[in-house]
Amino acid sequence: MKIKRSLLVSFVFLFSFSSPAFADIDLDIQTMNASKAATRAGNGDRGPALAVLKNGNLILGGGNNGGTLFLGDGQKRAVITLGELIAPGDRQKDSRFAITDIAVLSEGTNSAKLLVSYPRLGTGKKCVEVVVDQVDANFKTNKIIKNKTWFVSKPCVPINAVQHAAGRMEKIDANNVYLTIGDLGFTKINDLQARGDLGSVFQISATTVKKISTGHRNAQGIVLLANKTLLTAEHGPRGGDEINIIKPNTDYGWPFVTFGKPYTSTDYVKPAKTGTHAGYQQPIKYWVPSIAPTELVQLPDNWGKYSKQLVMGTLKEESLVFMTINAQNQITSEERVNVGERIRDLDVDENRSLVATTDSGNIMVFKLNK
Ligand SMILES: [Ca+2]
After folding, report:
1. pTM for this one?
2. Phi-psi region of 13 (alpha: psi -120 to 50; beta: other; left: phi over 0)
3. pLDDT recorded at residue 23
4. 276: CA distance to ligand 1 center in Å?
5. Ligand 1 geometric centre to CA of 202 (Å)
6. Per-residue pLDDT tens for 108-149?
7. Which of 103, 148, 204, 312 gets the most CB atoms within 10 Å of its CB?
8. How far is the CA of 352 from the centre of ligand 1 (A)?
9. Model confidence over 52-77: pLDDT tens digits?
């Protein structure tokens, strides 16, 4: 692949250049350091959650305390702290206790109405729940106000199991989003009653919660396509990462079936059947071994032959996966681009460039070279 790395025109922090091996897509990549917004802990670094505003500025979520919202201000060339969302006593010093996603519900010149999701300690500080808060941001004062809590997942899961929070959101309109809740590493995830909200996709508003589907292990990516199809990208156990079309009242099989391999005896749950998806909704795409998928986006229409393609970030494989999805919602091609960074979140900016945050604390902007 031919890669031209160049300086950023509108959004410059610090530049760092590297030259990993690439394959086929002719991309221009700009890299900036935003490590202030990354969450660092003994169990690994986590890149910030990301949402792009219409003016090209970024909202980033994470930081040393996990629960800080930042404005990536393009004109001032700075990462500005907006405020804290997770109280110090409501998290452990663990990079999994960090903002998982940000959705922009609506925005004006100097303000935005945001939704922010994150795991926090629940009752007695002995268990973990996933929360979605509406947050009003003011860009004149660069302050945030927590407005209303839209959602708290149940049951509250013992802390020692906390993983797979998911907590990704996709905007439907100014008042509604889709939300993924992972299995949180809950040992009773195979008990349909006990698992409650865990491992599900919801449609939520300020006043309503509707469960759409269930049987999802850890959906780190969710996108509503231009044709209104809803897709998720999910982590399997050992292999068996999936892309699913989300249909109402449907069970996607976790932890009963997976294309992945069995866990070892020390893992939190043992899938009933491995190497199969029989009896449950089939994914439209799966990967064995796993590539650890994160956010999923659909490219806008200025990407030449890649226009309207899906792009998925990966952690383990440190790549972007470009996929063609046809009118029948079948994935007909897959092209992997090695970027040499663990991709945490993805969005599309005002120039219709692809923007990613990485676990090393970089922001990467990708454009097609013409
Ligand atoms: Ca995001």
Report:
1. 0.93
2. alpha
3. 55
4. 31
5. 16
6. 999 999 999 999 999 899 999 999 999 999 999 999 999 999
7. 312
8. 15
9. 999 999 999 999 999 999 999 877 87
